């Protein structure tokens, strides 16, 4: 295998190139990715990679100087230049220094990259040089590019599954060169806030780019502080193992722990525009205590549910529930939807707020499914009033699913109630024709009705009624009918034991269950069975008396 070093100061470009190319296809492996020319030159002098792919404009040492310094050492290393259009003249100058090719960063395609790497591979084969770097331990020989994966596996086996003893883990720490002394250890668990939105923002469906970027950030930060290492736990959680054997003051260690955690927060925000929450453990000695430190850091991180994202959570943290209590009180006293309910239902609305307040103090985790049920109750009860039609357009399920803290959820519910009230009042101006069409849909939704049938019922043309739906409700007839049917299906899923495919037929969908499931997920963000499980989480649903109904 030929060894490759990528040099690029833009992290997303650097990590994206590293992880989007099937390097093995070209007989290559990436052994290093560096953010500037100076660190790249130091790595080059130590590891002598076969291929260097470098940007031109970088801090500390630019690409032109890096290429010149490499060429002072040898003419064999293959060099590829990453450039922008405005750097074309520099790229041409680089060619005179024995560069194998250049790639335009903003327009590079898989085909262009493949063509360039194939050409470089051909040159390397002709030189007949093959210098794979390898790391040797006492028990095995591990490729340099795979050492981090080995570390991650051993760490998880030790921390999470107890497969290795503390002694075996200590031996691995020595053999692998981990920066982790057994004295004055601490653990930080880092959680990406609102991960689904972050993944959607960067169109990173599998989260691979996010993962590699975060791991590189953690590596750079721990290297800068010269202590500990960072690891991947799962798609939303990362681990920092840190040791402070050179510090004897707990206060000093705590200060540096906060500094490192805030550096992680700053790096993630600078790169992704997103926040992270960090749970921090106490300080202890010996590898055998790492598991308990990890559990403690996780426990601290659970405080995020009550406090909101973007904070550090340490032992002895005093939780302030006043903001959540105030949020619930505002929903009780100032919610605009209360005025749309009957007096009896206003009382039941108050019962929901009372129960949510009790759960906040007794078992905060149960507030999440209860909030889902509360919103569904509001939607269903307003739905039977005459001011309700645009509620079909305002399904909040997706928004709540993407929230990972109670402050965020309460904010979403509050905003949802404001929008619902505004839309409900706007329906006072709904035309007579649309009102009659909607009434017909309500009475016949379980049948196989069409826009043509409804148009004939209200004595309008097919096209004119279609335009009225879009103008007054900002939705097509088919979407409106489907959403109304889904609302009825949601009630049956929660209130009965009917099979979901029987419910599909009962609310007017064809016996083809797949279509019903597809529409249901489009409207709610969940398939029918997931919606039922979410609404009846834990095998029982809360009722407004505070009891559970089986």
From TrEMBL:
Gene3D superfamilies membership: 3.40.50.2300, Homeodomain-like (1.10.10.60)
Main location: cytoplasm
Domain HTH araC/xylS-type: 435-534
Record CDD domains: REC_YesN-like (cd17536)
Pfam families the UniProt entry points to: HTH_18, Response_reg
Residue ranges annotated for the Response regulatory domain, each copy included: 3-120
Organism in which the protein naturally occurs: Paenibacillus wenxiniae
Entry keyword annotation includes ATP-binding: no
Keywords tagged on the record: Cytoplasm, DNA-binding, Phosphoprotein, Transcription, Transcription regulation, Two-component regulatory system
Modified residues (4-aspartylphosphate): 55
Protein's UniProt name: Response regulator
Source organism, top-level taxon: Bacteria
Annotated compartments: Cytoplasm
